[in-house]
Amino acid sequence: SVYDFFARRFSPYVAETFADALVQGIFAGDVRQLSVSACLPVLRDLEDSRGSVVRGMLLNAVLGNAVAAPTIPLQTERGKALAKTTGVSFPGGLQRLTDELARQTFHSNLSGDDRLERSLITGRRVVRIHLDRKVELDDGTVLDS
Q1: For the chain, first and last CA: distance in Å?
Q2: CA–CA separation, 52 vs 37, rounded Å?
Q3: Are 66 and 60 in contact (CB under 8 A)?
């Protein structure tokens, strides 16, 4: 798995923070379930060709022969259409998305049993999202998600 690959070569901490974020961001999958050969074949190729991932990156940078990213055939029409997309945004930027989510969530007209207990924390930075889905803020606060 991607987790095992990063944990063995770097550390469990790197696997939980970096690799998990990478896999969540790209594949929206579980780092412990996805195959490194399927998801990140360039890393496996670097290790196989140079003896280590880091050595392979350094040697390829110095020698100027970086491993080309493999091409992945797109299986669906939707996948082909998404491949042509270069990015997504909103008029006014992505801040509009979070502003609208906050407005819809915190300023809706729910009442009675439909009313949810909600709070909005602003001005804090997320420093870590734990594997148990707890969110740690820069002031030390830990939230259950």
Answers
A1: 26
A2: 15
A3: yes
Q: How many CB atoms lie within 10 A of CB 132?
A: 7
Contacts of 139 (CB under 8 A, 6+ apart): 124
Is the CB of residue 139 less than 8 Å from the CB of residue 122? Answer: no
From the list 34, 11, 10, the residue with the least C-alpha distance to 22 is: 34
Calculate the alpha carbon distances from 135 to 3, 14, 33, 126, 145 in Å.
Answer: 20, 17, 22, 7, 7
Beta carbons within 8 Å of 4's beta carbon, 6+ residues apart: 15, 32, 36
Per-residue model confidence (pLDDT) at position 125: 87
Rounded to whole angstroms, the Cα distance separating 50 from 132 reads 36
Label residue 20 exposed, middle or buried (CB < 10 Å: 0-12, 13-18, 19+).
buried
Average pLDDT, the chain: 75
Give the pLDDT confidence of 62-121 residue by residue, as tens digits: 776 655 544 444 555 655 655 555 455 667 777 777 777 777 776 666 555 555 566 778
